[in-house]
Amino acid sequence: MQKNNITRATLGRLPMYLEYIKANVTAETTSATEIAGSLGIGEVTVRRDLNLVCGQGRPKVGYPVKALVAALESVLGKNKLIPVVVVGAGKLGRALQNYDGFKKYGLEIVAAFDNDDEKTGVQSKNKPVYLMKQLSGFCKRNDVHIGIITVPTQTAQNVCDKMIKCGITAIWNFAPCPLTVPEGVTVRNENLALSLAHLNMVASGK
Fold first, then answer.
1. DSSP state letters, 10-72
2. Quick one: pLDDT at residue 124?
3. 24, 41, 171, 205: most buried, per Cβ within 10 A?
4. What is the secondary structure of 61-122 as a DSSP string?
5. Burial class (CB in 10 A: 0-12, 13-18, 19+), 18
6. Domain stops at, among 75, 95, 124
7. How far is Cα 39 from Cα 30, in angstroms, rounded to an integer?
8. Is residue 202 part of a domain?
């Protein structure tokens, strides 16, 4: 099963299934009913998700645990983590680089880049920070196609352009500004201030 056939909602639930099975299931088989009841998710939803990943379980038997775990790990990229780079080694960039949760989805931020040479070197968790001039060579050597932008607004487009020249085709943008990209490049914008403002409106009942 290819990831592009799986919805974002399903992909968000798969790590929960995998963690539950590994931590709690000792039998050779498990069922959508068991997983749904333990995780508090609808049984129909769980069965649909698992069928997308590994095919239908056997009636009254369920899913073979070893095969199900292998299928989940394959979809989530557990067998080979996809490398990601972040440009902007400030507090946000470093926080993202040190966050291990991306591995649940088969992704790992392998390096950060910055124009400030005082930020370079191996930082916490042995995560390296390089100068921007090293971005192109690093991306080519490590076959990187996903990048994260955590720089100020005034430099975001320039960083975006450099990423694209390095072969990056998917960008997660934390700069609060739109980016202009050519066809074939995907951008997901993350405006933290806007998200917080939305929560404030919900909390205040506006």
1. HHHHHHHHHHHHHHH--SSEE-HHHHHHHHT--HHHHHHHHHHHH-PPBTTTBEEHHHHHHHH
2. 66
3. 171
4. TBEEHHHHHHHHHHHTTTTSPEEEEEE--SHHHHHHHH-GGGGGGTEEEEEEEES-GGG-EE
5. buried
6. 75
7. 14
8. no
Same domain membership, residue 102 and residue 22: no
Averaged pLDDT for residues 37-46: 93
Q: Both 156 and 127 in a single domain?
A: yes
Please, which residues bridge with residue 84 across strands? 109, 146
The residue type at 147: G
**Average pLDDT of 35-44?**
93
Closest CA to 183 of 165, 166, 162, 169: 169
Give the span between the Cα atoms of 167 and 158, in whole angstroms.
15
Cα separation, 144 vs 149, whole angstroms: 14
Rg (CA), the chain: 20
| Domain containing residue 46 | 3-75
Region 146-163 average pLDDT: 97
